[in-house]
Amino acid sequence: MSEEIVVIEGDGIGQEVVPAAVSVLDAVADFQFVEAEAGDAVQAETGEALPQATYDTVADADATLFGAAGETAADVILPLREAVGSFVNIRPARAYPGVDAVRPETDLVFLRENTEGVYSGHEDRLSEDLSTLTRVVTTSASEQLAEFACEYVADRGESGFHVAHKANVMRETDGRFRDAVVDVAEREGVEAEEVLMDAFATRVCLNPGQFDVVVCPNLAGDVLSDLAAGLVGGLGLLPSANVGPDNALFEPVHGTAPDIAGEGAANPSAAILSAAMLLEHLGYDDEAADVRTAVESVLESGPRTPDLGGNAGTEDVTTAVLDRLD
Amino acid sequence: MSEEIVVIEGDGIGQEVVPAAVSVLDAVADFQFVEAEAGDAVQAETGEALPQATYDTVADADATLFGAAGETAADVILPLREAVGSFVNIRPARAYPGVDAVRPETDLVFLRENTEGVYSGHEDRLSEDLSTLTRVVTTSASEQLAEFACEYVADRGESGFHVAHKANVMRETDGRFRDAVVDVAEREGVEAEEVLMDAFATRVCLNPGQFDVVVCPNLAGDVLSDLAAGLVGGLGLLPSANVGPDNALFEPVHGTAPDIAGEGAANPSAAILSAAMLLEHLGYDDEAADVRTAVESVLESGPRTPDLGGNAGTEDVTTAVLDRLD
Ligand SMILES: CC(C)[C@H](C(=O)O)[C@@H](O)C(=O)O
Ligand SMILES: CC(C)[C@H](C(=O)O)[C@@H](O)C(=O)O
Description:
10-stranded mixed sheet; two-stranded antiparallel ribbon; IsoPropMal-DH-like_dom (chains A, B); oxidoreductase (chains A, B); 3-isopropylmalate dehydrogenase (chains A, B)
């Protein structure tokens, strides 16, 4: 029985790169694709950026491939992460041979806590002058992330990971996060090396090769993975996975790129690499590896979109990837 | 009447770079120096990392030059910033000719909110599983920072600044921060361009030249300025100023560097550049410019400490700076 994959193009270049990724998925596996809507366009039409029907479809599917949303990004992606019960956002950031990078030796994977921290949604306007946000950290969510991280590094034959935090200032909350992660790692026989998130920002620029898998709270993961995107040459190449207990959502880290949307010039690599993460997640390891190899080969010597200094279009790159999969 | 400058060496290389900076100050101005203690060593001796006497002396002085503290850093520096009523942390991050940098075109100044955000100190352990932190943002503190920023860019003949935030997620708190900063800028006729803090992290790596003065909430300023430190070649060259209404504290951004402490090999440049910020703050603009020029000349063609690939000591570099001041 073929798996059901929800496909949400969203806005802007989401409508160009997601079809590209779907054509790649279609070439290597026998999925049943279900289209769903979310984003600025739906909001303009219906008043809702994320229709309940989309939320429900995503919650029930085997996996979802999402493109990007514009102004409504937070209204779409945060509830969608919740719809799949995602407790971890996996964000690999690596430089590819043939692609200009500030730091070509970068090869990192961020495992970002995906449910709490400053993303908890509790904010209050307490007076004319003062507002507060309640940052939430639980041991249970931190442990769940840490257990995932331990399996993740074990699967890759690595001995440990870094845990980035700001527990010297957020002593109780990031202290709880750090302790939970370190305790789980110890129990699982995995090395967890601590690094303050600000020190990480300096050190990763100076020498990214000293890091590998980095476990972090929600906002730290957001900012530090975007920093790593800068080191590898931009957001155009970064895929991501939002993984839940029995469901997952995959998305390129880039946004809608309104400056180039509609021109057929968007780089589909991040979306196709997100599709590769989807394949791997569903157990299609060989197909995932094939797709990655094809994308890498195109990045090294195939047609290039303008963001990488070429003048090929989304379709040219997609066709080149498909050719290499034959 | 000569100004009273409190000098706190603190721990580790603070004890090496602060005397270097004091000798430079002594060479160009007629200050009265008052020594005070804080840090790990004092904590070990007295049980208090920041004695009340030090706090009071700093609160009363014209300015303070601080080195670094070890494990007790947060217990020392956060109250000291409060002692001078510091509402802004000024963090210039620029690459110097002759010094290896990941991004040699980097020339940024972060104006970091210095009193609130996640640094408010309100954390609670609500249950066995859950802790919270109350992130605080006020319009008054945001406006005070913005007014400073407007004067700062006007003094430099620039037209505007960027304001980095995460108001797409922290809508009420960072929304308040953003609105206050943008409103003040508008009123003062200064351009304030918004950038999400995660997008800033990517963009500053790809092209730091597009940014100049960056206004940010407390933790954003902490992480993004450390990121910029990575782009210019490390923390060894970054000075900073914590400015209050009628008092200020100056410190290198680096820490105690326990790996090299006691060897006389620490790079005194960040401390000396912090002293230059102190001079400028007290109105000694010519002397500040002279010190900066001397440091730049040494960085370009003088003796180098091991962090910059040389084998000179702290004293060699300091002597070279002093020679160029004659
Ligand atoms: C759009 C925004 C809510 C989101 C986040 O902060 O998680 C984005 O920056 C991301 O990293 O996916
Ligand atoms: C030591 C720590 C509390 C401090 C901070 O977070 O402000 C440091 O990182 C800094 O940037 O001066």
